[in-house]
Amino acid sequence: MRIAVCIKQVPNTTEIKIDPVTNTLKRDGVPSIMNPDDKAALESALVLKDKYNAEVVVVTMGPPQAELILREAMSMGADEAFLVTDRAFAGSDTWATSTILAAALKKVGYDIIIGGRQAIDGDTAQVGPQIAEHLDIPQVTYVVEIDIDEKNNVCRVKKEFEDRYQIVEVKGKALFTVLSGMNEPRYMLVGGIVDQEEKAITVITVNDIEVDRGNIGLLGSPTKVKSSFSKTVDSNKELIELSPQEAAKVIADKLAEKHII
Amino acid sequence: MSKDIFVYIEQRDRVIQNVSFELIGEARRLVAVSGGNVCGVLVGNNIASLAKEVVANGADKVFVVDNKELEYYTTECYAQAVTAVVRKHSPNAMLFGASTIGRDLAPRISARVHTGLTADCTDLKIDEEGNLFMTRPAFGGSLFATIACPDHRPQMSTVRPGVMKKVEYDTNRAGEIITEDVAIDATKFAVKIVEEVKETKAAVKIEDSKILVSMGRGLENNLAQVKNFATVIGGTVSCSRAVVDAGVWKSDRQVGQTGKTVRPDVYFAMGISGAVQHIAGMDGSDLIIAINKDKTAAIFNTAHLGIVGDATAIMPELEKEILARK
Amino acid sequence: MSKVYKYDLFNQMIEEFALREVKPIAEEVDEEERFPTETVAKMSKIGLMGTIVPKQYGGMGGDYQMYVKAVAELSKHCGTTGVILSAHMSLCVAPILDFGTEEQKMRYLPRMSTGEWIGAFGLTEPNAGTDASNQQTIAVEHDDHWVINGSKIFITNAGYAEVYVIVAVTAREGRKVEMTTFLMEASMPGFTIGKKEKKMGIRGSSTCELIFKDVIVPKENMLGKRGEGFKIAMKTLDGGRIGIAAQALGLAEGALNETVSYVKERKQFGRPIAQLQNTQFTLADMSVRVEASRLLVERAMNAKQNKDRALSVYAAEAKLFASETASYVTSKAVQLHGGYGYTREYPVERMMRDAKITEIYEGTSEVQKMVISGALLKK
After folding, report:
1. Four-point Cα dihedral C287, C288, C292, C295, nearest 10
2. How far, rounded to the nearest angstrom, does the alpha carbon of residue B128 sit from its chain's CA centroid?
3. Cα distance from C28 to chain A (closest Cα, Å)?
4. Which residue of C has its CA nearest to A187?
5. Residue C189, preceding peptide bond in cis (omega within 30° of 0)
6. pLDDT (tens digit per residue) in A130-146
7. Is residue A251 part of a domain?
């Protein structure tokens, strides 16, 4: 069984700070990491590799420096890695991104696809289901357990909702999105780190895939970012010394303003 | 193409989820600017009787797809039902609750009908031509982006539960209920639900809580009071590392670098000094309210609202305020 | 020339590992004087115990740059964990790699690489500390084996290790002693573990006496040639000093990091103490010493990797400076933490206790000075 795992390089958002003077995002020096949900996806695939000797290939779309997370994935145990990169892909929204990745995945080849539920830089959770639609294969999102029955070509997964879970069986090709927390991703292995240095990464550009150029990049994206702004940070300012009664009123007003009460 | 705004009416076990009514309320405000009707899309098995609820909550029309193949939620069957209604009526926009179901279904449909989708919106605006401007947080809430979908219809978005306001419930409201006869091909994709189990979550997951009442060492002897306040405000109690070390709570309640990273809508830091390790675990919270006796406490650098005072004195007053305003 | 990724990846991995697996239990390991078996098992699982061992001997095919980074990073949070790896690798794996026969490498290195067998080294005796030539452990030759009698003290990893590189006297003529190195196994009859030391720092590491009573050691377990024992021990310690220098570097860095966070948070006179010039100047002094130590450690590490003849002096310089830096920096860290720094609420107190040993074991600072000045005066 060939498992394709979709991973993304993201800025470590927990280290992103707002510049208090310019009120903009300070991205300088913020380390890039493998998106946590994607790392859980990779771990779940590697567990299947350990159990059933499945083949695990990783795919990422991004700038050339995203090679680092592919190499991290190989150091954890992935067999092969594909970097989907091209200037023509820049500015793609989730629809265009999923169009590109679906075309790339056709080229990579897969029996099942596992991805993270969402990336911490965008939090959209859209690319997985959209890839599945473009590939015309079923999806199960919010998955917390995956097992495969290779003989019958069936995957059995546990899908979580807010108030319930489902055990779902899917026959044939399928795409799953998983949640970080479903497993504890393994560390890179020292031997894996040494070995990846000898391995090549396959680069996939716009010329390598079958895709309508009108459907990719900034122009091919249905959604357009009109503006962006950071939270108007009123921290460091509203420091109030009041009687308990007055303090309670101030807090309650703030909660009401945010529709909490 | 119509000017109508569709709202996906999410029902679970024939109970309509609150977020759907919130979205109807929001859609009402939008059509007041752009014109058009607010239409609910109600999908499921044996659910037709719920349609009048949708009307009472503000919809002008309700499209009902009632089909025995829709007893349980599966992506493909539900996507077929909603897509058929969307294709037939070509709405200007369609809103989904950003629940596990909404966020599973909406992207599938957006890919199928080739249109843009904006996830997890917290604010929607529209112009007279019907162009929707969807604002959403990114980078863990430290940045907001406003997104448009100029050339594709319907403009689609998922919207966070609890953000939008419902309109007043009115059973006398007039609305049209339209039954849509959609053929569902349940054989497409061999996806089988083996079992579905409803859960009452026993384990405390502070990272899932929308409201956290977090206590520091200073409130160790006021545990009952803290618990009571959390109940009143509908939140969960979390704590700093010192409190775990003192054995008051187990580590599943601990916020911070060695504990959990949380990002609730409201974070009350009660008597928490704000060690860097603690801040690292909660500074992504939407609203941080800190109460501390020490006006030099580091927590005030991170708080959106800082109160210098005794949390044990303020909590009972705040409880009164909250109960009074409910 | 394509970009090299392995060091970035290794650094990322070990930093995460140390933060998630080592830091949370460092205090407990110290408090309970407990050998962190579970951490060693996790280190073994990721291949850390065989970092520098070539693939043909079941190792990971990594190098000294990775190994040194690992010791420093583990020590940043827990000096105990750092020295467990250092003793295993520098004092046991390395001499087998450097002096072992093909058969010895095949027997020991695969199991040591997976962490199934941990390594240790025994030279010091009650009356042979810095004066290592005054050995009392005797090996007597028989037909196809040696019989070893005697004892060793202060042996790191004792009791948890399976493989021991042991120096013994094989002949004595007046004041002239012939020393030879042997590979001994914990399971050999007559090999027992004696008293466990109660220490000031690195309290989770196992430091015990080894007792040999008529231990039969097969001839093929001689490491290197007969009579090369002292030379092998000294060369092994050259490498070991890089490990200890890395441990000292890690301790100093850890204490510096803790202090930087603390002074930004701690307020006196209405403002963070980071705004006081005394704090700022002290931090600068600490930092400069840490960075200088790092450069010396890197130079020694490269010498070891490239089999440079200057290794002995470089290693002595790195250990001397890094260990004194560790004591200096951890002491200043406690000072800047004030009264809190003296309590066990904050890790700098433990780091200060851990740091002291780096000036003592694997050659005291005075021994390093002898090596350095000896080379100077020989010119």
Report:
1. 60
2. 27
3. 23
4. C13
5. no
6. 999 999 999 999 999 99
7. no
Q: How confident is the model at residue B202 (pLDDT cuts 50, 70, 90)?
A: low
The distance of A33 to chain C (nearest Cα, Å) reads: 10
- Please tell me the distance in Å from A200's CA to the nearest CA on chain B: 32
Q: Are the beta carbons of C265 and B298 separated by less than 8 Å?
A: yes
Quick one: tokens of A58? 């990783």
Rg of chain C taking only CA atoms, in angstroms:
21
pLDDT at B203: 57
- Sheet with A139-149, strands from edge to edge, namely A202-204, A80-84, A55-61, A2-7, A112-116, A174-178, A139-149, A154-160, A164-171, B191-198
Q: Residue A231's pLDDT band (boundaries 50, 70, 90)?
A: low
ipTM higher than 0.85? yes
Distance CA C188, CA C212 (A): 9
Distance in angstroms (rounded) separating the CA atoms of residues C124 and C122: 6
Please report the pLDDT score of residue B280 as a whole number: 72
Distances (CA, A) of C366 to B207, C323, C363: 54, 12, 8
pLDDT recorded at residue C1: 43
> Which residue in A8, A118, A126 has the most chain B C-beta atoms within 10 A of its own C-beta, making it the best mutation to test that interface?
A126
Question: Which is higher by pLDDT, B246 or B59?
Answer: B59
Q: Would the pLDDT of A98 be above 90?
A: yes
- A-C contacts (CB, under 8 Å): 57
Q: CA-to-CA distance for A197 and A75, rounded, in angstroms? A: 9
Q: Report if residue A257 sits inside a domain.
A: no
Q: Select from B245, B258, B301 the residue whose CB has the most chain C CBs within 10 Å, as the one to mutate to test that interface.
A: B258
Which residue, A231, A20, A13, C275, is CA-closest to B301? A20
Q: What is the pLDDT of residue A74?
A: 98
Res. A227 pLDDT band, cuts 50 70 90: confident
Average model confidence (pLDDT) across chain B: 90
A236 in a structural domain: no
The residues of C annotated as belonging to the active site are 362
Q: Do C22 and C78 meet the contact criterion of CB atoms below 8 Å apart?
A: yes
Token pair recorded at residue A182: 């479903």
- State whether residue A203 sits within 8 Å of chain C by CB: no
Terminal-residue alpha carbon distance, chain B: 42
CA atoms within 13 A on the CB side of C322: 30
Coil/strand/helix, residue A167: strand
When divided into structural domains, chain A yields a total of 1
Dihedral over alpha carbons B139, B141, B146, B150 (to 10 degrees): 60
Query: Which pLDDT belongs to residue A189?
Result: 98
Q: Strand (E) positions, C160-314?
A: 163-173, 176-185, 191-196, 207-218, 222-223, 267-268, 271-272
Assess whether pLDDT exceeds 60 at residue A235: no
Q: Dump strand ranges (E) for chain A.
A: 2-7, 9-11, 17-18, 25-26, 32-34, 55-61, 80-84, 112-116, 139-149, 154-160, 164-171, 174-178, 202-204, 224-230, 239-241
pLDDT, tens digit (0-9, with 9 covering 90-100), for C208-238 = 999 999 999 999 999 999 999 999 999 999 9
The CA distance from B246 to the nearest CA of chain A, in Å, is 27
Q: Is A191 on the interface with C (CB under 8 A)?
A: yes
Task: Report residue C170 as tokens.
Answer: 């094989």
Let me know if residue A222 belongs to a domain.
no
| Cα–Cα distance, C167 to B145 (Å, whole number) | 69
- The domains found in chain B, sorted by start residue, are 5-188 (3.40.50.620), 206-325 (3.40.50.1220)
Question: Domain holding A178: CATH number?
Answer: 3.40.50.620
Nearest CA in chain B to C270: B296
Q: Do C8 and A189 touch (CB under 8 A)?
A: no
Closest residue in A to B318 (Cα–Cα): A248
CB A232 within 8 Å of CB B301? no
Nearest CA in chain B to A164: B198
pLDDT under 50: residue ranges of chain C:
1
Q: Print the domain residue range for A133.
A: 2-215
